[in-house]
């Protein structure tokens, strides 16, 4: 029965998903990567009940909704980009949704999140409205950074969402500082900070891990290992394949999570969040995932660094498919309900684009605002002729 | 007023601000147990404890970024660089993160952080330890830059920097720490950022400068006086914001300008000011603007070569005579 269900859901959810037998055994037979995480970590195979970790049907459905919305909203983003409505660099998260959604679901809105430039879904998951995200991409006044940040620099102080940073690895020390503040103020909070696997080779990563572990501060660093930094495969960039092992150099706990499985992300992150909250310090989580799209909108889906077949094979592990199958097996979300949900998130995405379309351009006269705390200081702050 | 050293003035500023605001903390290499590489933080660990005076590993990028993240979420770090030479490792965090956070977040995050440490050449420390880098930092909109030249200015400007809601970079003169001067004891003694100070009045020619170089300028002015030339010395104190009004006032008064800075000429502070005067006050000039800077070379070690590479009183006098057509 499960197999039939799988076939049905796949058609409804997304055309990129092939209806195949994706059991761990089948994947292993096919030499697939599905069970990479469990192989590395030697973790026991978990039953559906164990995987659901006591989450209520409503919580599980909410996660499904979030994943679908993330996917559909970004598909809309791709469309708007192709139409020239969105400019600049634009990095989509399609394929990686389980990572941010599973992990952020494991903490509370009072906790912080910070990430790099592939950030639309993290921003969304922290509670920024789809409209404010879309408007930011359009460079409009109603964008979550008032049009000054764009795809790579979304922020929302209200939602404890701390951006959106464009220098590979540069956000990790910043998160270290937020974790430091939490300790300084004796707050009951944590920060999740994300980076791509390529950032792991930066000094910023190592400097931060050392200090985080030394001072036992509540930082959870999630490495989104999608196996490519732009076009450079991880094995061509790192002398050590297993990123989670890097934590041992800093006497820091670490774990591997299946970044294609939202519940595994939730489970592993929850453990790290609890450890951080109880004063146990930081954790490094390696989330093994894959991006189904190009590095950015200027990069084709496969590119020269991987083949079309590679990508198609990986799509067998579509995180939305994996989760939809489980929910169907457990009679939590039927095929019809899933389709209805999909219609709903498509509508929300359309509305977000409409909202962005209607949002005004920021006033060009705002060019010199919001750079310094006070604009009326003694002496000149800006040095070009425009000001005079 | 008490006469204390530049170093003690900075120490007072830190102690007073930490006393006043529990959100202010000091972080850097050797600031705690060792009492500071240049002893600026002497006694602070004892007074405020190790959550507020924090010794770090040698990781400039890491702890500078830590400060930026902490400031983003509401506390007020003072990040000490052992010298600004090593802050080069942290420039990504200062330029790409601190300077831009408010702007790229559409004004949602303030950045009440102070980065401080010594700048400029000391004696025979050679190329990597003898750089005056304030022009590089002032290049970036989003940061503020101050360069105190006297003990009183050191105290007033550092206190203002710590209270400011923007990232402020304080460049302390490496050779000035032992300089003595009168310093007000008042807890609220603040020198507002962006206010230049006329360190010496004169009528024939103006020297516009900052930091350690005000002393070179004052010496040159004193010698010129013996020759019957009246030299005005304007100490900028703050490079961003820059007190353009004070610059224009002195240009209008003397109509002749020599600009002096410790750093290199290319892309320097003096280059910016010369361009600005030319753009906005060309009519007031009776002579071309001249500059005195460091030689355009990495600082050599050998004593005589080092001396030749630094801006000197003699060079300043030579340029003063030149703009006076003497
Ligand atoms: C310091 C720095 N160097 C180079 C770049 C250009 N760049 C942008 S993304 C990227 C690849 C990063 O890959 P990874 O960290 O694995 O993240 P992913 O894009 O896979 O999410 C590179 C090289 C940059 N933004 N910052």
TrEMBL record, chain A:
InterPro entries: DH_E1 (IPR001017), PDH_E1_Alpha_Subunit (IPR050642), Pyrv_DH_E1_asu_subgrp-y (IPR017597), THDP-binding (IPR029061). Residues 1-56 are annotated as: Disordered. Heterodimer of an alpha and a beta chain. NCBIfam families: PDH_E1_alph_y. It is an enzyme of class 1 (oxidoreductase). Residues 66-364 form the Dehydrogenase E1 component domain. Its EC number is 1.2.4.1. GO terms for molecular function: pyruvate dehydrogenase (acetyl-transferring) activity. Its cofactor is thiamine diphosphate. The pyruvate dehydrogenase complex catalyzes the overall conversion of pyruvate to acetyl-CoA and CO(2). Keywords: Coiled coil, Oxidoreductase, Pyruvate, Thiamine pyrophosphate. Residues 331-358 form a coiled coil. This is Pyruvate dehydrogenase E1 component subunit alpha. It catalyses: N(6)-[(R)-lipoyl]-L-lysyl-[protein] + pyruvate + H(+) = N(6)-[(R)-S(8)-acetyldihydrolipoyl]-L-lysyl-[protein] + CO2. It comes from Longimicrobium terrae. GO terms for biological process: pyruvate decarboxylation to acetyl-CoA. It comes from the Bacteria. Pfam families: E1_dh. Residues 33-52 have a biased composition (Basic and acidic residues).
UniProtKB/TrEMBL annotation, chain B:
Its cofactor is thiamine diphosphate. InterPro entries: THDP-binding (IPR029061), Transketo_C/PFOR_II (IPR009014), Transketolase-like_Pyr-bd (IPR005475), Transketolase_C (IPR033248). The keyword Oxidoreductase applies. Residues 4-179 form the Transketolase-like pyrimidine-binding domain. Keywords: Oxidoreductase, Pyruvate, Thiamine pyrophosphate. SMART domains: Transket_pyr. It comes from the Bacteria. It is an enzyme of class 1 (oxidoreductase). One of its GO terms (molecular function) is pyruvate dehydrogenase (acetyl-transferring) activity. Its EC number is 1.2.4.1. NCBIfam families: PRK09212.1, PRK11892.1. This is Pyruvate dehydrogenase E1 component beta subunit.
